[in-house]
């Protein structure tokens, strides 16, 4: 088991949280061949618990900065308390497992409303999405930040949605600023989603802060385009968005928000938390 964990955490500088080594895949394949899907799920559940024990013994978690440590500790406790070995997401290729393992192994940081992956870069193709006419300005913006990588990338996680509100999102920004102490080369943060769409300012105004806060403080928005996933995600929880989509009045589109390190840190410095004690994640 420890060799599996070591194989999972031995990654390259830009291998994101979903990356699994060939050795880890072989080990899981062998377990599946012997005991089937249930054996794999049981193994991966124990892997999560074992990784927490290993990282606690080496004091890895203690290097986290204060606000991030509070959020991360809450997630570690939640994972440690979960003994379910029947969950279908206990699969090496499942996004939920990748995020759970990312948390216990510090491949991801729990940070307010989001998880932070620090092994990421902004795709260069994003500057050409609106044609060559606008590509120069976008490229200049990215070069002004220092380039296209490395960046923090924010991800939502099913088990941390309790913090998906304005204050939890602000704590995400604060955690990113804190994490620059651990990753001083990071050029800033970026996130991609349908909920950065300017159209939501009228359709779902309660989500507008997700876009307007970074943009008002030096961030920039980059269109990505529509997709089946964008439509599915945008219409999953809102009857208003579903109705407007069916009527042809709203087409969900993904956008990328990019916020440079210095502008983000300046915003955090001017927006301190109301309390010095970080909330839990739920």
Order of helices and strands: HHHHEEHEHEHHEHHEH
| Overall 3D form | globular
How many domains comprise the coordinates? 2
What is the chains' assembly state? single chain
Extended strand count: 6
Mean pLDDT: 95
What is the rounded distance between the termini?
A: 31 Å
Kindly estimate the percentage of residues that lie in beta strands according to DSSP.
Answer: 5-15%
Kindly state the percentage of residues in helix. 40-55%
What is the C-alpha radius of gyration, as a whole number of Å?
Answer: 20 Å
Unreliable stretches, pLDDT < 50, 5 or more residues? Answer: none
> What structural category do the secondary elements indicate?
alpha+beta
The number of helical segments is 11
Widest sheet, order of strands: 1-2-3-4-6-5
Q: The biggest beta sheet, please?
A: 6 strands, mixed
